[in-house]
Specification:
The protein is of the alpha/beta class. Helix content is 40%, strand content 15%. The strands form two sheets. It has a six-stranded mixed β-sheet with strand order 1-2-10-7-8-9, with helices on both faces. Bound molecules: pyridoxal-5'-phosphate. Pyridoxal-5'-phosphate binds next to helix 3, strand 7 and helix 7.
Length: 336
């Protein structure tokens, strides 16, 4: 292993998370599916974002900030985790959310409200183009009120956030050793790219010996290859002294993204995704979400059924959380 020095990290997540074989689902599909239970990093603080925020919020504290500004969809898991952790650590939290607020708050949006986050919503149209301006505008306003805001990008996917899943690879390394496992690949849902960037770096550093395959939930393969590479490059620029990767550096790392399972778009899924969610819940007692993990797991099952994954082989799925996303989508589960 190369020399590795972690930057400041808070201890917020319940880790290490369990690593299990999906016994019944594996028998049904003819491929051994192992699952990393990052849906169990906490209760209302569950999911992948908390691993990134352990580093991001340590950085915010280090810089002496007292307010957090971040953004995402109306039902963003990242915003919910930020709202709750901000409350826990004494930051004022401001969320800039994409979408039209419903009459009744539900799922993550309800939890944001319970946690006391300040919420502003904007229509989907032009959201991305105006995002950096809105984040900066909010920061200016807070500064004029004497606050010291810290802006967290979408999904905490940046150089700092990369550490979350780089760090998780130390756990995976131990999981694989304990289970005497040499998996063919690690699959996960990719939405803003930071989890995949961290896993790709960590797989190299901890010599996991298998590719990391992102299943895109919104944009296409070319987009995510660029985004993941950009996050890894900014990580390397900033943290060169903390960790040096191979001679060829990160240019030599492959970024694998499957974009066949996006469906109609972000937070929009076809019935097959809801069917996969109910199927897995009834096989294993594990609940996926319709925006990320359900889509990605549906992609994995489809790849198995297409014969793109060898029968009898071992694969790993990272369950990145998101359970609160099933509630606003309740109507889609009726009759399945
Ligand atoms: C954010 C999220 C992802 C995607 O992670 P990125 O780092 O944004 O790509 C996957 N699953 C769930 C449940 C998430 O909330």
């Amino acid at each position: 292993m190369p020399h590795l020095t972690y930057p400041p990290k808070l201890s917020l997540a319940n880790i290490p998370t369990p690593f299990q074989k999906l016994e019944r689902a594996s028998r049904a599909l003819g491929v051994n599916i192992w699952i990393k239970r990052d849906d169990l990093t906490g209760s209302v603080l569950s999911g992948n974002k908390i691993r990134k925020l352990e580093f991001t919020l340590a950085q915010a504290q280090l810089e002496g900030c007292d307010a957090l500004i971040t953004c995402g969809g109306l039902q963003s898991n990242h915003c919910r985790a930020t709202a709750l952790l901000g409350a826990q650590l004494g930051f004022e939290v401001h969320l800039i959310l994409r979408g039209k607020p419903p009459l009744e708050f539900d799922g993550n949006l309800l939890l944001d409200t319970i946690a006391g986050a300040h919420i502003e919503t904007f229509s989907t149209q032009g959201f991305t183009q105006q995002l950096s301006q809105r984040l900066e505008g909010k920061a200016q306003t807070l500064r004029s009120l004497g606050r010291k805001p810290y802006i967290i990008p979408t999904g905490a996917s940046d150089d700092v956030g990369c550490w979350g899943y780089l760090h998780a690879c130390a756990e995976l390394h131990q999981d694989f050793e304990r289970c005497d496992l040499e998996p063919e690949a690690i699959y996960l849902a990719t939405g803003s790219g930071g989890t995949q960037a961290g896993l790709t770096l960590g797989a190299e550093i901890f010599e996991l010996g298998c590719p990391v395959v992102g299943i895109a939930v919104c944009d296409d393969t070319a987009y995510f290859q660029r985004k993941v590479r950009r996050d890894m490059e900014s990580w390397q620029r900033r943290y060169r002294a903390n960790c040096e990767i191979g001679e060829a550096g990160i240019d030599a790392l492959d970024i694998h993204v499957l974009d066949d399972y996006i469906g109609p778009g972000y937070a929009q899924a076809g019935e097959e995704v809801y069917q996969t969610i109910t199927w897995l819940a009834r096989q294993e007692g594990i609940v996926l979400d319709p925006v990320y993990t359900g889509k990605a797991f549906h992609g994995l099952v489809s790849e198995i059924k297409l014969g793109n994954i060898n029968a009898g082989s071992d694969v790993v799925f990272i369950h990145t959380g998101g359970v609160f996303g099933v509630f606003p989508d309740r109507a889609r589960f009726i009759g399945l």
